[in-house]
């Protein structure tokens, strides 16, 4: 029987799936630049390594009247009919292979979702999974492509170099006082006079209650996404880190040790085990032991239950799941920005890094996991 990989994600406490072969990349929510004359579900655009990426909020596309973007939201970049478009969701869960025979084709899901957007329903364990139909979900590809073309300033007929450079500055900078094109009328000259009407910032429209500190994080993410990955990695040898929350405190971990971020969907407790061994979970047929590392850091333990976020790491030959409160960001930093830890306070830290007006400890996972294994013996 034929099967296909699906990327599984959450939105409004429901689980959805999309054809994973159409997914180009996934990243945390950055600041966006609002797009004039765009469909209501297109909440903005992003300079993604030199290319303009329109971003759709799935909640708006599925019928919600308004949305409020969060720091933890994620954007899935899709490649559809030669068009790249971002889609905002609450949280990406994992990758699952689903057989065609497990998918039911039905027109009425029983929820307030337009049936045209549904490709089928799959039952995974005790939950129903809504598989989305991208052909109907991404509407008017030609119109969106035209908006990208216009935003990139490709129509240079009659435009001075000075005007085009000014437009590029508007696109490349997600400034607090966002300006936008006064009209999307075809053949409209791109001049300073036409870029004059305030559209309102992304934060005013879609994050009205977000703190200034969180706004700064989204703005920094947008700036990081402008930099080409290949050139950056080759020229500077950046060090990849993920920021996690443990017991209410933020730490960084080496992203090279991370296999995936997921949520606990099943949990089997193991009797007569050390306190830091939470239990096992079945992750697509592989048994993963869940290890609570809060205890060795003298932090309050993370409550572990179905739905708890987990970082799956591999340290040498040990694969384990680390329950966390939150995975708040992934970023790359020059090694020179990582500062050593004084010997007296080293513990399970391998260094520190200053980020967003705070200093984060970088966990020494190899040392930590090795110590836990020795203690078990």
Q: What key attributes describe this structure?
A:
about 375 residues; alpha+beta; OB fold (Dihydrolipoamide Acetyltransferase, E2P); 2 domains; six-stranded mixed sheet; five-stranded mixed sheet; 8 helices; about 20% helix; about 40% strand; globular
DSSP, total strands? 23
The level of helicity is 10-25%
- Strand proportion: 35-45%
Fourth CATH level, the homologous superfamily of the largest domain: CheA-289, Domain 4
Compute the number of helices. 8
The largest sheet, given as strand count, sense and whether it forms a barrel, is: 6 strands, mixed
Would you write up a description of this structure?
The protein has helices spanning 58-61, 134-137, 141-151, 161-172, 202-206, 212-225, 229-236, 365-376; strands spanning 3-11, 14-19, 23-28, 42-48, 51-57, 74-80, 83-89, 91-99, 103-104, 118-124, 127-132, 179-180, 197-198, 239-246, 249-254, 258-263, 277-283, 286-291, 309-315, 318-323, 326-333, 349-355, 358-363. It has eight helices and 23 strands. Mean pLDDT is 78; it is low at 154-199 and 230-236. It is of the alpha+beta class. The two termini are 45 Å apart. The protein has two domains: 3-206, OB fold (Dihydrolipoamide Acetyltransferase, E2P) (Beta Barrel), CATH 2.40.50.180; 237-376, Beta Barrel (OB fold (Dihydrolipoamide Acetyltransferase, E2P)). The longest helix is centred in the middle third of the chain and has 14 residues, at 212-225. The strands form five sheets. A six-stranded mixed β-sheet has the order 8-1-2-11-10-9, with no helix packed on it. Helices cover 19% and strands 38% of the residues.
């Amino acid at each position: 029987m034929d099967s296909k990989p699906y990327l599984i994600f959450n939105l409004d406490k429901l689980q959805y799936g999309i054809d994973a072969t159409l997914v180009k990349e996934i990243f945390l929510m950055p600041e966006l630049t609002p797009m004039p004359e765009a469909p209501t579900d297109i909440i903005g655009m992003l300079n993604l390594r030199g290319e303009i990426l329109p971003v759709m909020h799935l909640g708006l596309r599925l019928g919600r009247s308004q949305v409020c973007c969060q720091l933890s939201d994620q954007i899935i970049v899709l490649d559809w009919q030669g068009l790249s478009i971002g889609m905002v969701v609450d949280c990406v869960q994992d990758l699952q292979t689903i057989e065609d025979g497990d998918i039911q084709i039905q027109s009425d899901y029983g929820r307030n979702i337009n049936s045209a957007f549904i490709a089928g329903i799959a039952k995974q364990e005790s939950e129903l999974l809504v598989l989305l139909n991208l052909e109907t979900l991404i509407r008017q590809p030609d119109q969106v492509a035209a908006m990208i073309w216009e935003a990139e300033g490709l129509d240079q007929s009659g435009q001075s170099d000075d005007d085009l450079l000014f437009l590029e500055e508007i696109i490349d900078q997600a400034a607090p006082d966002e300006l936008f094109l006064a009209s999307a009328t075809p053949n409209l000259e791109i001049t300073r006079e036409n870029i004059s009407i305030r559209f309102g910032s992304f934060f005013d429209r879609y994050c009205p209650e977000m703190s200034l500190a969180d706004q700064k994080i989204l703005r920094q993410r947008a700036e990081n996404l402008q930099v080409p990955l290949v050139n950056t990695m080759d020229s500077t040898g950046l060090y990849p880190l993920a920021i996690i929350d443990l017991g209410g405190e933020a730490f960084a971990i080496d992203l090279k040790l991370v296999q995936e971020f997921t949520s606990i969907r099943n949990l089997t407790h193991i009797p007569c085990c050390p306190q830091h061994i939470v239990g096992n979970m079945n992750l697509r047929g592989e048994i993963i032991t869940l290890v609570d590392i809060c205890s060795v850091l003298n932090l309050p333990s993370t409550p572990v239950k179905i739905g708890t976020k987990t970082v799956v790491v591999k340290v040498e030959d040990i694969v384990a799941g680390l329950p966390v409160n939150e995975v708040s960001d992934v970023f790359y930093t020059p090694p020179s920005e990582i500062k050593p830890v004084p010997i007296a306070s080293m513990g399970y830290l391998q260094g520190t890094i200053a980020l967003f007006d705070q200093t984060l400890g970088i966990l020494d996972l190899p040392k930590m996991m090795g110590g836990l294994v020795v203690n078990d013996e």
